[in-house]
Write a structure and sequence with these properties.
By secondary structure, this protein is of the alpha+beta class. It has an 8-stranded antiparallel beta barrel with strand order 1-2-3-4-5-8-9-11.
């Protein structure tokens, strides 16, 4: 039987201690994610808009700005609204071109959810009003918008997610019936830096 001497024992202990000291005791080895703040939401965004009306679904990329308490659309998506009002596809496309860009501001109130590191947004949509030219006559159109779900600004990836719907359309104070709700979904919008 070999003798185990003290110097070899001390070297073995030192090797084990050195190896153990290389392991981290910290459970948070990932990158440090700063907590979300109210002012983080401000900025310009680009996102995929999914518009659903009945069995029809369209997708396109849109831009908008988030301010302190407003999401501002420089060009609100009105194609489905106009096509609901004007059934003739050729006349509808002509009207869409004639209308041009419609601005819309979506008001919101934000609260911080520190547990999930997000801002929760509760929306207060206003009625969207604009004129639709049809056969030389402008039709006064009002669109009642709603946002039944909260929106979220996610602190970890600085993204914005929300949805809204066009629940009712009136043309010259007459409600369009039958009418299928137009749903606008923005599942992932990224901030432009």
């Amino acid at each position: 039987m070999k003798k185990f001497t003290v110097p070899k024992f001390l070297i073995a202990v030192l090797i084990v201690l050195t190896g153990l000291s290389l392991f981290s005791c910290n459970d948070n080895d990932g990158p440090e994610i700063p907590p979300v703040k109210m002012e983080d939401i401000k900025g310009s965004y680009k996102g995929r808009l999914i518009t659903i009306q009945g069995s029809s679904r369209t997708e396109k990329i849109i831009d908008f700005k988030a301010k302190k308490d407003t999401i501002a659309f420089a060009e609100f998506p009105i194609n489905e609204i106009v096509k609901t009002v004007i059934k003739d596809p050729v006349k509808a496309e002509t009207a869409i071109k004639a209308i041009g860009k419609i601005k819309y501001d979506l008001d919101y109130k934000a609260t911080i959810n520190t547990e999930n590191n997000v801002l929760e947004l509760v929306f207060a949509p206003k009625v969207l009003e604009f004129q639709i030219p049809v056969d030389g006559v402008n039709k006064k159109t009002k669109v009642v918008l709603s946002a039944k779900q909260k929106g979220f600004f996610v602190g970890m990836d600085q993204s914005l997610r929300f949805a809204m719907a066009a629940d009712k359309i009136t043309v010259d104070d007459l409600e369009i019936t039958p009418y299928e709700t137009i749903n606008y979904n923005l599942p992932f919008c990224v901030k432009n830096y």
